[in-house]
Amino acid sequence: MFSTNPLLRWAIAFVTLIMLTPAQAAPQQGVTGQVISKTELAPPNGLQEAAEQYLIHYRSTSGVDGVSSREDTAAVFLPKGTAPQDGWPVVIWTHGTIGVARGCAPSLNPRTPRDAQYLNTWLSLGFAVVAPDYAGLGSAGLHHYMNARAEAWSVLDSARAALGAFPLRNQLVLVGQSQGAHAAFSSAGYQPQYAPALNIRATVLTGTPYFAPGLSAAQIFAGGTQEQSGDPKIPYAFYLYLSAADQQPGLNASDYFQPRALPVLEQARQLCITPLTAEVMQQGLNAGNSLKPAIQQLLDEQTDALRYATLKIAHPVFIGIGGEDINVPTAMQQRFATAVREAGTAVDVHQYPGLDHSSAMNPSLRDSVPFVLRTLAEER
Known about the structure:
By secondary structure, the chain is α/β, with parallel strands linked by helices. The protein has 2 domains: 6-210 and 308-377, Rossmann fold, CATH 3.40.50.1820; 217-304, no CATH class. The chain has helices spanning 6-20, 113-124, 148-165, 179-194, 217-220, 234-247, 262-267, 273-283, 287-290, 295-306, 330-342, 365-377, and strands at residues 35-40, 50-61, 69-79, 88-94, 128-132, 168-177, 200-206, 317-322, 347-352. It has a 9-stranded mixed sheet with strand order 1-2-3-5-4-6-7-8-9, sandwiched between helices. Strand 4, helix 2 and strand 5 form a beta-alpha-beta unit. The longest helix is centred in the middle third of the chain and has 18 residues, at 148-165. 51% of the residues are buried.
């Protein structure tokens, strides 16, 4: 008797799809998107459902200046079992906010329990996982936080590099949470021009930031008070300022941040997101007691670099929204979903009442996995 569980039915269908889908050619490799080195990933930084796991260094181009050559890093996880003749289908995992310092790179640290659970699910379903760190994380230079083109170029080059070095099928799904949702959707938008040979079939997003026309980065941090309650969005303001200061060395932090925030801003250069957020909350930092009016202009100047290249994507997009999200406000995500649909993108939107920015991620799998399996089973 066949199971009535819809997720199990989709999984069975997908196993059949893996065995029957004809092979597709991997993209042509140029100077970018080439593996420089490949080593086994440190066991503490691995995933339970991976049969093999590697750290790769690959060639890319800086999306910040558009010309500089880079060497970026990514982790690659291969599923257990025998690879299909035409290779494993691939999830390109784009991670959430982790920090801007080199040592914060996910490939250099154990995955959080939340992320490990999420990625192990995709591995157990027969997907390889390619997990780029982003430029400046695990590689040279400061990570330019939320720079859409920089994220996208590094992510797309990680996919090209992995396809050339592992038994993978050029059948890709971009999957991202929070900053990673921003990176995934940015990658989907830049892919037709930057990496046209990549066969991206679907994009899955949860906790997606959206800098709409008329909405600046500064407005996101408005509304703080002089009360002693910390705001978990303040680390984002620190990271955005540090990205701007990296391009404009003459900036003076005291012009944009109140004295109370300056010591923590300095720590943000090296602190990854979890200890930085803990410090912000302990110090009770919020917009009212941390930001100066001039931050409005600075962040406004950064907003263009944060915006998506396009809202019209040629493949289907899944959007999961936590109904109680504070970090990326629920209303912002709803506005994003509406704008993407109105732009002509095929979208599947799910909202999860009572769940916040982090807790909505794994429950969204009950909807995003069938969405992906259904999309891959359809003819293009």
